[in-house]
Amino acid sequence: MSRWVKSALAGSVLAATAALVPALPAAAAPTVPCFKGYICVQEAKGVITAVPEGQSYAFPAGTEMAGISNQTAISYCVGGNPNFQVTAGQEVVRSQPITGFQPGRFCLT
């Protein structure tokens, strides 16, 4: 078999294999839409709450967050189950109940 035929067969087998393997979706993590200078919470139901830097916010009845994005220059403490800190520029994407957030570097656990 000539070298050209071997190359053509190898290419055909590779193309056929690639056609049979389904394409995998991009592994992009979801992100919370937020402007610079704000801290934003995306609730599980899709509502986004954006609060200017330095302000606190409370969800009186609590809410289920899908993610939080801190696009400010300061850290925030997030009250929830569990409580956690979100530092400047950080985004946390996970589902959990929260009651609110406030500026702070030392958060109760």
From TrEMBL:
Native species: Paractinoplanes rhizophilus
Entry keywords, A to Z: Signal
Signal peptide positions on this chain: 1-28
Name this polypeptide is given: Secreted protein
